[in-house]
Every structure is written in structure tokens, then in C-alpha cells.
Amino acid sequence: MADMNLSPLIKVSEVKLIFKSKIKASERLKVKQTLDAYLIFRQYWDEDKIELQEQFKIMLLNQANKILGICTISTGGVTGTVTDPKLIFSTALKANATSIIVAHNHPSGNLKPSSADISFTKKLKEGARLLDLSLLDHIIITTENYYSFADQGEL
User: Fold this and answer.
1) Within a domain: residue 94?
2) Rounded distance, CA 44 to CA 39, Å?
3) What's the total number of domains in the chain?
4) Which CATH number do you get for residue 106?
5) To pair with 91 at 20 to 30 A between CA atoms, which of 6, 98, 104, 143?
């Protein structure tokens, strides 16, 4: 075995994964349908930004479809936001989620998904599959209504 000379100058950061919920497991909300997810997302959306800036959020769920948490992944401009799939998946993995629902708003009020929305959803679905996560839905939110990729058979 090679002689390993460990110098005190070698410093490496220690990484710890911690998830602490402030909500008891028995009190977590359960998502049974798209409307549930939409209404919960809307409660956590910044009303001052929903018609001003596009935001992207993720809902983390356990095996029983109970919500572990909601996280804002990105905030952009009027016509888009840059969303990094690595942030989505690292957040889901850190929370020990088994499935996710993602959502973003369209400040214009138009519920029709853009080609970028469709492409990104396919990319997320494939990434989730590789990580043994389920992408249950991608919801586009406006102040008045929502569009569900899952409900439209596009997931």
C-alpha cells in the first residue's frame, strides 16, 4: 500500500444532507388531483409578481403524494425564466422526494405552453426517470386559471 502523506494543508469541505420538516407527517397536505396542486401553488405564489415576472417552482412529494415542501427555483423576466434542471433534481433528492410537480406562471395570462415549455417538460420527464423520480405534472399558472400537461395527456 502506498505511503500516504496527509498534509494539514489539504482541506476538503464536508457535505451533509439534512431535511427537517416543520410539519408533522400526519399534517402534510395530500395532492389528489391537479386542482389541489394548482390551489396550493397559488397560495405560495407572490401575488405582486404573478403578472410581472415569470417564476418556476417545484412541489416535492413523498410516496403517498403528501407535500414535503415547495421551493422557488428561478425568477426571470416578463417573457421567461432560466430554470436549471440540476437545481430541480438536487432539491428533490435532498428532500428525499419520490415525485415532483413543477409549475411556472405566464405573466401574459396566456395558458398555452410555448415550444420551450414543451421541450423543457420532456427533458425533465427523462431526467426524473433516470433518477427514479416521477414527474407528475407541469402546471402553467395565471391569476385566473391553469394548464396541466398531465391533464392534457402531454406527460
Assistant:
1) yes
2) 9
3) 1
4) 3.40.140.10
5) 143
Question: What's this model's pTM, rounded to 2 decimal places?
Answer: 0.85
Per residue of the chain (155 residues), what is the pLDDT tens digit? 555 666 666 677 777 767 677 888 888 889 999 999 999 999 999 888 899 999 999 999 999 999 999 999 988 878 778 888 999 999 999 999 999 999 999 999 999 999 999 999 999 999 999 999 999 999 999 989 999 999 999 98
Q: Is 31 part of any domain?
A: yes
Q: How far is CA 62 from CA 5, 41, 75, 85, 98, in A?
A: 45, 17, 25, 19, 5
Residue in the block written with cell 413543477: 102
- C-alpha to C-alpha distance for 7 and 110, rounded to whole angstroms: 60
Residues 116 and 83 sit within 8 Å (Cβ to Cβ): no
Residue with cell 423520480: 133
Domain limits for position 79: 27-148
- 135, burial (CB in 10 Å: exposed 0-12, middle 13-18, buried 19+): buried
C-alpha cell at 3: 505511503
Alpha-carbon distance of 6 to 21, in angstroms, equals 39
